[in-house]
Amino acid sequence: MRKTLFRRNLGTVMVVGLTFAANAYAAYPEKPIRLVVPFPPGGATDVIGRIIANKLGTELGQQVIVENRAGATGTIGAEAAAKAPADGYTLLMGTLTTYSTMAILEKGQLRYDLLKDFTPIMVVGSVPLVVVVSQKVQAKSLKELIDFAKDNPNKISFASSGPSSVQRMAAEMLQKEANIHLLHVPYKGSGPAMTDLVGGQVDMMIETVPAAQSFVKSGKLRALAVTVPTRVSMLPDTPTAKEAGLDTLDVSSMFGVLAPAATPAPVVERLNSALAKVLGSVEVQSQLQKQGVYAQTPSSPSQSAAQLRGEHVRWEKLIKDARITADN
Asked: Which family does it belong to (predicted)?
């Protein structure tokens, strides 16, 4: 009898506790929210963040303020967001693909843990990449480039915006899938890399479509293939890697909104619901696509977390197989 009574009382306490917890956050948000963008104003992450912040603020009924915390390839902003109070008033606009590779290559050096210190709210979109070559390169298609590389190992140089960048990882995956060997030339950022590519100091690069399209359209670079399954609207005449026979070369740069790990579940759900409405807006989808970003179908926090873990596992395997380090 006592055990039965105890169980009933315990059940009542649990229900009351859960109800109290839900009610405690029913009024969220009650003040402006800070969205940390870990890069300077004007870049892709900043543009995406401002589009999202504007509409998210409308959905939540509170202003969402973009705060640029640039430095150390996005790690300064990420660390600041990870260590902020887990109350839903500090969020991070994360470059999830780059953060995933950095978490592997710079393990033990970062002062935050991507998978442990953050709760994904939602993956909001992705930016496709494109294989571009200098005009001095004679290959007119990805197949021709691969055929040349097979006959001439390490004769084709490729630029990247840094050892842990998505541009570098895409080129490593190309080498793996095509069974070729290229010469890596790392730069400190896409700007210098693209300058040298246009100038012919390096032969090729796999760059984001938004960053490369103006050079392609002006004839300064030649686009050979996009690294996503279907052609993209910004470069409609450029074939896919799949069309060149590389069925598994599917690489894009993923972006998402993250919160500190201990953020209460009702707050996470509220943010997720609001972001789903934002991404469902035709206006937002159009604004993002003009920047080369393809809005993702809204997903739950658990689905977004699974995507982030999958991204981490994918690059961890490639980095291990290719013996990539932060220094090479």
From this structure: Belongs to the UPF0065 (bug) family.
Rounded Cα–Cα distance for residues 45 and 255 (Å): 8
> Which of 115, 109, 105 shows the shortest CA–CA distance to 160?
105
Of 315, 187, 200, nearest to 251 (Cα)?
Answer: 315
Between the alpha carbon of residue 261 and those of residues 30, 87, 229, the distances in Å are 20, 10, 33
Q: Give phi and psi for 204, each to the nearest 5.
A: -150, 170
* Alpha-carbon gap, residue 222 to 132, rounded angstroms: 5
* Helices and strands in the chain, H and E counts: 11, 10
Domains and CATH numbers, the chain: 31-127+254-322 (3.40.190.150), 128-244 (3.40.190.10)
- What the block records as the tokens of 286 is 């159009």
Low-confidence stretches of the chain (pLDDT beneath 50): 5-6, 13-18, 20
For the entire predicted model, the pTM comes to 0.86
The tokens for 80 are 């600041």
CA distance 158 to 142: 14
